[in-house]
Write a structure and sequence with these properties.
Number of strands of chain A: 19
Oligomer: heterodimer
Helix content of chain B: 25-40%
Number of helices of chain B: 8
Radius of gyration of chain A: 21 Å
Number of helices of chain A: 15
Strand content of chain A: 15-25%
Order of helices and strands of chain B: EHHEHEHEHEEEHHH
Shape of chain B: globular
Largest sheet of chain A: 5 strands, parallel
Helix content of chain A: 25-40%
Largest interface: A-B, 75 and 57 residues
Shape of chain A: globular
Largest sheet of chain B: 7 strands, mixed
Number of strands of chain B: 7
Radius of gyration of chain B: 19 Å
């Protein structure tokens, strides 16, 4: 009988082409997503005179540089931005890749459309030149981000050399309180283990809270694994996973579906599998969270106050906290719920799916935003679904701008920027210095909390709002 | 890729935890091509004021550290985005090795693809190195990849661990793609067997 194995162990060994005596492993890659930041990798390939080995396994969509005002090419009015989008589309066509073009309804943030199209499936190894590739792990895949050289390597060989990371399991048990969402869970996890807490590990999220959570919540959790330093995050596939995938465009059909189900059903970690590290959280103790600093680990429940560096004994940590508070223009002891904001961003690969938009719309329904706010759906199909449900009207009545799909203000590469000194309540994944624009101050939170902040004009506890069922 | 054998050069201390790749190179410069060079953009917003004047408080703008070829950093250096531009910016500036207690995983991998050596040492040893460099600007740190040692300004030697495959590639300056293409036959064999089993892909 085979030794007990984790979900991660099983996927890893099923993809090992070669294992060197020193442990370096050549892995087969099932899916490779490329986007408009992949230009340098295609150039590496061209310089070596190589073609894409498996165009049938490589899927392209522009997301980082696209305008969210319109999806006409002409609307990208800076030549360098339009250039990288056009370059991606030209590369995709020249190499015979499947392209979800800027003008295609299926275009969107690469980590939204992979699951949406069922291109991302249990048991796969999925890579992309973007650190939030861990998102796809929510479907029971091993998915991780790589740099340009490794993108080039996958394009040329459909393989990657990797050293096997360690296994970590994070178990969250119990029911989430009303107003507490997947984003709060992952922020609480990062606050617990730290921004480097998962370095060198692949995290499997488990426990009754994760099991009860829909696939979209799991996508949010896995998405931010990188913010905990982990190589990847994953959730064992279950009936919710299979129901989510069934009938989607790239899901297996008929006899293939049955064969896939049998294969996927054997993937979850064996009961006696060993993890190198385990962490437990009690869902009942998780409150709506907001970040106050410039690392995602600088997170606290909305009911707390800005922490005081003077209370931190370690000098390096004290300095970095003070540096963060200076950048964020916050004083120790200020209640988080008294921090006034200048704008709100709802979107990004973390929180731009239909359930995210529904959660925000429930809070906003019949209310008005006190500050400028935009909502950027994760894909053209999410946008269409939201419009079919009338969510666009709720957002617009609340004073939000209803935009086209893209990465947008999460990273600002398309020009959707937070101005210097402005404070933004954001559903994205990084509150780094300058992330949303030079001098921009970011507070990360869930879509429901961002909607509540928009109404109040300050960070606020969404649990104070009554909502229509 | 240029091989990495050893270096004995000025080192700059950057004692801030979680230096993310957005700080190493802001997103607004990422559309540029690799051949354009990124050295002048390294740590851009930490290094320069709005008008482009150097910030005197940033270590690489200070006497004794401008010519640094080694950075001695803090935990989780290079965390965040997968942008390889972060490694290119360090490399193009002249940095050949970064010493830290831990690194962002993707940055760590990207470094090896470009001849930049990330060296992991215990946090207290890294802090001690930084303290020496702060006391004596312009002093050297020597790193010998073959011997897997880092030698501080006071002569104290620390041995570091490194993945043998990565070490071999760096010492030889081997390009991963060429190496892997040598295994084409094995890759095709694997694909055939795998696709026979997972036929719905």
């Amino acid at each position: 009988m085979a030794a007990p194995a984790t979900l991660f162990d099983k996927i890893w060994s099923a993809h090992a082409i070669l294992v060197r005596p020193d442990g370096a492993t050549l892995l087969h890659i099932d899916r490779h997503f490329v986007h408009d930041g992949s230009g340098n990798a295609f150039r590496m390939l061209q310089e070596k005179g190589l073609a894409v080995r498996r165009p049938d396994r490589t899927f392209a969509t522009p997301d980082h540089y696209v305008s969210t005002l319109s999806h006409d090419f002409a609307s990208i009015n800076e030549p360098h931005r339009r250039g990288v989008v056009e370059e991606l589309e030209a590369n995709a066509k020249a190499q015979g890749l499947t392209l979800f073009s800027l003008t295609d309804r299926r275009q969107g943030i690469v980590h939204v459309i992979g699951p949406e199209q069922a291109l991302s499936q249990p048991g796969m190894i999925i890579v992309c030149g973007d650190s939030h590739t861990a998102t796809h792990g929510a479907l029971g895949a091993l998915a991780f981000g790589v740099g340009a050289s490794e993108v080039g390597h996958v394009l040329a060989t459909q393989t990657l050399w990797q050293r096997k990371p360690k296994n970590m399991r994070i178990v969250v048990d119990g029911a989430l309180a009303p107003g507490v969402h997947a984003k709060d869970v992952i922020l609480a996890i990062i606050a617990r283990i730290g921004a480097a807490g998962g370095v060198g590990h692949v995290i499997e999220y488990a426990g009754s809270t994760i099991r009860a959570m829909g696939i979209e919540g799991r996508l949010t959790i896995c998405n931010m694994s990188i913010e905990a330093g982990a190589r990847a995050g994953m959730v064992a596939p279950d009936d919710l996973t299979f129901a989510y995938l069934h009938g989607r465009p790239y899901a297996p059909k008929d006899a293939d579906w049955d064969a896939a189900l049998a294969y996927w059903g054997a993937l979850p970690s064996d009961a006696d599998a060993q993890f190198d590290r385990e962490v437990h959280l009690d869902a009942a103790e998780i409150a709506p969270m907001v970040t106050w600093g410039t690392s995602p680990e600088a997170t606290a429940p909305i009911t707390e106050r800005v922490p005081d560096p003077a209370c931190v004994p370690d000098a390096t940590r004290r300095d970095s906290m003070q540096r963060a508070l200076d950048y964020m223009d916050l004083r120790p002891g200020t209640p988080l719920a008294e921090i006034a904001i200048d704008r709100v961003f709802i979107g990004s690969c973390t929180n731009s799916r239909i359930e995210d938009l529904r959660a925000a719309a429930r809070v906003l329904d019949g209310r008005r935003a006190a500050v400028p706010a935009i909502v950027v759906p994760g894909s053209g199909l999410v946008k269409a679904q939201a419009e079919a449900e009338g969510l666009d009207a709720i957002f617009e009545r609340a004073g939000f701008e209803w935009r086209e799909a893209g990465c947008s203000m999460c990273v600002g590469m398309n020009g959707d920027l937070v101005a210097p000194g402005e404070r933004c309540a954001s559903t994205s994944n990084r509150n780094f210095v300058g992330r949303q624009g030079k001098g921009a101050r970011t507070h990360l939170m869930s879509p429901a909390m961002a909607a509540a902040a928009a109404i109040a004009g300050r960070l606020t506890d969404v649990r104070q709002f009554t909502m229509r069922p | 890729m240029e091989p990495f054998l050893r270096i004995d050069a000025t080192a700059a201390p950057i004692g801030i935890a979680n230096i993310d790749t957005d700080q190493i190179i802001p997103a607004r410069f990422l559309w540029r091509k690799r051949r354009d060079g990124f050295g002048h953009l390294l740590f851009h917003d930490l290094r320069f004021r709005d008008g482009g004047a150097p910030r005197p408080e940033f270590v690489l703008n200070q006497d004794g550290y401008r010519e640094a070829r080694v950075v001695v950093a803090e935990r989780n250096f290079g965390c965040g985005s997968s942008r390889e531009h972060a490694v290119w910016a360090l490399y193009d500036f002249g940095i050949r090795a970064v010493v830290a207690p831990s690194f962002g995983d993707i940055f760590f991998n990207n470094s090896f693809q470009n001849g930049l050596l990330p060296v992991v040492l215990p946090a207290e040893r890294v802090a001690a190195l930084r303290a020496l460099l702060e006391q004596s600007p312009g002093t050297h740190v020597a790193i010998d990849l073959e011997a897997q040692t880092a030698t501080g300004p006071n002569g104290a030697i620390d041995r570091f661990e490194i993945d043998p495959f990565r070490k071999e590639c760096l010492l030889a300056g081997t390009d991963d793609i060429s190496f892997t293409l040598g295994h084409r036959g094995r890759i095709a064999e694997f694909e055939n067997a795998y696709e026979g089993k997972v036929r719905w892909l």
